[in-house]
Amino acid sequence: MAKIDDYTPIVGESVVEDLKLIALHLRGKQILNVNSTAVGGGVAEILNRMVPLLRELGLDVRWDVIRGGEEFFDVTKKFHNALHGGRADIGEKDLEIFMETSRKNVEEMDTSSDIVFIHDPQPIVLVQKRMNNKWIWRCHIDLSDPEQKVWRFLKEFVVQYDAAVFSAPAFSRKLPVRQFLISPSIDPLSDKNRELPQEVIDGVLNKYGIPKDKPIITQISRFDRLKDPLGVITTYRLVKKNIACRLLLAGGTATDDPEGQKVFEEVMESANGDPDIHILSMSQNDLEINALQRASTVIIQKSLKEGFGLTVSEALWKSKPVVASNVGGIPLQIKHKHSGLLCYSAEGAAFAVKQFLSSPDYARKIGENGREHVRNNFLITRHLRDYLLLFLSLYHRENIVYL
Amino acid sequence: MAELARAAEPFRFYTRLHLTELTGLRAAGLVQLVRLLKSVPGGSIYYHTHRFLQQHQYLSPEPPNDFAYWVREILGEEELGERLASIDIIQFSTIRSLRESIIETVEEYLEQRPEAKMRFAQEGGELHFKKAVSFILPTQHISYDLREFVEILKRITIDSIYFHIFEARLRLEKKTNDFSNWIENSIGNEALAFSIARLDPYVFTMEDLRRTITDLIEREIR
User: Fold this and answer.
1) Is B210 an 8 Å CB contact of chain A?
2) Domain total in chain B
3) Exposed / middle / buried, residue B61 (Cβ in 10 Å: 0-12, 13-18, 19+)
4) Which residue(s) pair with A41 in the sheet?
5) Do A170 and B18 touch (CB under 8 A)?
6) Phi and psi (nearest 5°) for A331?
7) Range of A167's domain?
8) What's the average model confidence in pLDDT over A36-47?
9) pLDDT at residue B64, rounded to an integer
10) For residue A370, what pLDDT is reported?
């Protein structure tokens, strides 16, 4: 696991120095993170990297996961879809299931830390247990157009927190609590993002039987409707009318996503045996994902909704030209025509992919800009700094804080 | 090598780190923009006129402020965008006066072009008002003369330079930037202090600004 000083060659000495300086003001503070899954999905991935670094900086950080059965996660998946603006088929029975499991978690979990940091809606009810400590609700999902019934239900809990944190400005709502904007981040030293020798990349392509004879267009995502894998196949077919290419769809499913298998089957059906479409349902293997991204010519993220879309930053960090939907946190990562191309439809995505495939110099320049943008704004060191400042802000209400 | 003047008071470098707070307020058109410009906290005006300096240091040229960018790129009001972009922020020594100038520019335009009141951002394109919460921390770096000062300046974070040049002057309402203030009052070099104070920091990327100030000082102590 990386140490804080290992980041110095990437971000510079003074950035790391600043982190140590802020952390001095939080030394010994107990912080409890709670989410719903220890593996799979962006939240678990970020926590896996952040928690050890915060500890190294002198904070007393714990990470706990709520418990819930299949029924509970079916309901929270419905919540997730509804908060993303989808149709909500949520009845009283669903709310009862949610509350019953939540009550058990409230009873069982020790939340006596100085700061309790709750991630996403699944553990949101824990705030009922608050004492004289500080509580933060960290929302990682796109709340720009939530289904109102579900939002009203959850809002009753959100208002009991000291602060809420969102990944993009459009996700903030009118709330009587302080709201902060903190983008997630990628770890440049993790297996998913570190530099790889060419033979490792080639080895992974060989393992999955992907020849390097044509440009490779890739989307790395869970098999989830909101990632629009079928739209990616449409995009590929439009590109293929003019340019020979391969499509790579790779990803896994998280333990809190019961819908994944169904979507995977739909994707297989849509691919209809095309030998240039490679569909990989992978168990968590960061190194292989890294290799597949590095082997790609263009990377797509054609999500319909997106909490943030960290796969975009991952691709940009590898200096790849990226075509992505203008949703959620993606426009924060891509400044159109400067650090990538934004699109609104399969047709738009196909046009952008063709531009990149036809103009390699343009694609390279955009990719380089993207890497610098990520270095400045979306690496874990910036994220650590924001979290440290967030914790400090709980003890300071003023706009200019002298430490 | 000429002996350097030792400062009456040493210069301690501070750094300024910021956290972005969301206000939950958003504007979809120009009338709403003016209304919110009048009521949002000063920290929000500061945020939207300075954010680009830190987030897009590598890109140049950049739209000088979020209001100009939004009006031009989202509402398609090119002329007003240009007028807002050319507001010379360095002229203002308080957020209040900067706020008044932005409001006046939009109101004047709406008087001349009332049809612009009917332009609205598409859903998702609204301007979301944010504000900066600043945390100011002393670093371990202290200088007693210009040579020590310039060596620290070369490697300090851009956040520190940002604090001493931009935030100190406008947000904390000091008359000039901290570097000029120290060089004039503690080192007693009025000419060098002036040559730094007269720079318009808003037209530099942060790294260019560091280089320019470093060059000015190094020429002086050579």
Assistant:
1) no
2) 2
3) exposed
4) none
5) no
6) -65, -15
7) 4-185+380-393
8) 82
9) 66
10) 94
